[in-house]
Every structure is written in C-alpha cells, then in structure tokens.
Design brief:
about 300 residues; disordered N terminus; elongated
Length: about 300
C-alpha cells in the first residue's frame, strides 16, 4: 500500500493553509516513488528467464542434470542464500549500516527472494521427485509467505526513511487534516457540511486483525466509490466543484484506517515471523543436503 501524501491545502508540518499549497511530507504519511519497483523488476527478470528456458527447450531437453539446468540451480541457490544473509546482517547488526537504509535492503531481499526460487524452479525442469521435490515445495512455501509478509509490512505507515510511524504521529496528522477540513468547508453550503459531518461519524465495520489488513484494498475501493458518488451528486445539484473536499476526506479516512491497522499489522507480523523463519531454516537445510548429494555423486557440471 502506498501511504498518501497530504493533499493541496494542508501543510503537514504546521497549521492548515487557507489556499492550496504545495504539501510537505509528514512522518506518518510520506510515500516512496514506487513501492512495488522490486516486484516489477523481479517479474521482468523472471519473464526473461522464461524466454531463455523456452529457447533452450527448443534446442535441448531441459533438466537439472544438464549444464544449463545446473547453473540455474547454482545461481538460484546463491541468490537465495544471499538474500537471507545480507538482509539479516543489515537488519540485525551495524556492520552494513553504511550501505543504505533497511528499506532498500528489504527491496533487495524481496527481489532476490523471487528470482532465486524461480531459477530453482526452472532448474528442476518442473519435475518434483524425492528430496528435490521437497526442496521445491519448501521454496514455494517460503516465497509465498514472503509475499504475505510484505503485504503485512506495507500495512504499517512509514516515512521516506523507512521509519515506522507512531500513534502520536498519526493522531497529530489527523488533527491537522480535520482542522483543514473545517476551514475549507465553513464557507460551503449546508449540504457539503452535512456530507463532511456524516463522513466523520460513519459506521466502521468491525473486523479482526486478519480481515482488517487483508481486505484493506477492498475497503478502500468501496469507500472511494461511495464518496465519489456522493460528491458528484452534490456537484450536479449545487453547481460547485468539490474535488478539494473529496481529497481531504480521503486523506482523513486513510489516516484513520492507518491508525486502526497499526497495531493489527504489528501483531500479524509477529505471528508471520514465527512461521516464516522456521520454514526458511528447513528450506536451507534441504538445499544443503541436495547440494551435498550432488557434489558427492559428481553430477552434471562437476564431471
């Protein structure tokens, strides 16, 4: 989820402005240029590897015992080991503090955590027997749980530096946005003020942690659709543009949602770590046995 920046008309570092002003970033609601860049790059690389695989299939039978298949497995395993070791060192120690923020390393972790398993998948030639099949199943589980963890991670509002926002940050930002809405609508019609008041007191559907976080995209879409429909009706009847009001109400609603999800996402991440880490340990143990057996029997590229 991309956390929205403050709309025109609000200066997030001070009091609300009386006219549209270029927004400043706040600790709770700043956003990166492209939060899904690592997903797009990994998809591009996987598509390129798929093309190479198809070409190789036309020229020779793909297989783990072939030279091409072996190198796919070696490089894929290397990326998987690299993504775990370097990211863990950067996250848990100060040895790589000079190498950039943790959020960049997380993007690297996600990229190599997708490309590496995909290379291992092509290495198997889509044959899942014996230990290789178990290793591939564990790879799929770890990769899938990684996607789930990333979704939980993006539910927590952060600054551009990757610093997690606090409840105090969000409360302060909500107050600033609320003050800006009050100033913006005080000269508007009664119908507009009624819309703003009704939006402030709307009923929120009670959800548990899982549904609150996993269905946030669906809830956002429903809210945007309903608000946009109400604003368009008011614009037609009142002959006035209400785009600024709509943006401010969206901003307030996003902040309130982030406030509700903050603790829920933290709890889900804690539970997720309990499952993700042991699966990763099992995966690398299986990989170590598979590689050791390959070296012992002198297969493929080592002949």
């Amino acid at each position: 989820m991309l956390h929205p920046t403050a709309p025109d008309g609000v200066i997030t570092g001070g009091r609300p402005a009386s006219k549209p002003t270029k927004a400043k970033s706040s600790p709770a609601t700043t956003t990166t240029a492209d939060e899904s860049l690592e997903l797009k790059l990994s998809l591009l690389v996987c598509l390129g590897l798929s093309g190479m695989y198809v070409i190789y299939e036309l020229l020779a039978e793909p297989g783990g015992g072939q030279l091409f298949g072996h190198w796919l497995g070696i490089l894929g395993t290397f990326l998987m080991v690299l993504t775990e070791t370097l990211y863990s060192i950067r996250k848990r120690t100060t040895l790589l503090r000079w190498a950039g923020p943790v959020r960049y390393w997380l993007s690297f972790h996600i990229f190599t955590g997708i490309v590496g398993p995909f290379m291992v998948l092509t290495h198997t030639a889509f044959q899942f027997r014996g230990l290789a099949g178990i290793t591939m199943a564990l790879t799929v589980l770890v990769c899938g749980s990684g996607f789930l963890g990333r979704y939980f991670y993006t539910a927590i509002p952060r600054s551009l530096a990757g610093v997690e926002a606090s409840s105090t940050d969000l409360v302060d930002e909500i107050r600033r946005v609320q003050a800006a809405i009050a100033e913006m609508t005080q000269q508007r019609s009664d119908a507009v003020q009624a819309l703003v008041e009704a939006d402030a007191h709307r009923q929120r559907r009670a959800r548990g942690d899982w549904m609150l976080v996993l269905l946030r995209g669906w809830d956002d879409w429903r809210y945007r659709r309903n608000l946009h429909s109400q604003v368009r009706r008011l614009e037609k009847t009142g002959q006035q543009k209400l785009g600024d009001v709509e943006r401010m109400l969206m901003q307030r609603r996003n902040l309130e949602r982030q406030m509700r999800m903050l603790q829920a996402a933290r709890r889900l991440l804690s539970v997720w770590h309990i499952a993700h880490v042991p699966m990763g340990v099992a995966l690398f143990s299986s990989v170590a046995i598979h590689v050791s057996a390959t070296l012992y029997f002198g297969a493929g590229v080592w002949r």
